[in-house]
Design the sequence.
């Protein structure tokens, strides 16, 4: 397992592509919407969610500086 901090500013474009690892995101701060597969949801501080490996996902409509703690399993890289 590995971990990283991921941040996006309001109005930013999330350019990430699907990963080879499963991921767990924890929202430290900020507000946005998150699309994973065919599901779209709003995210806010203290939200935690899972994304399976190879599933397309993107943050969008970022209204406040978004800071996330993301865990990858197995370790990224």
Sequence:
């Amino acid at each position: 397992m590995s971990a990283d901090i991921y941040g996006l500013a309001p109005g930013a474009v999330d350019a990430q592509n699907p990963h080879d690892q499963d991921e767990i995101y924890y929202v430290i701060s900020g507000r946005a919407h998150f699309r994973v597969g065919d599901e779209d949801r709003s995210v806010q501080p203290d939200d935690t969610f899972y994304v399976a490996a190879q599933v397309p996902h993107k943050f969008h409509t970022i209204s406040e500086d978004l800071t996330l703690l993301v865990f990858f399993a197995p370790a990224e890289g």
Notes: The longest strand covers residues 57-73.
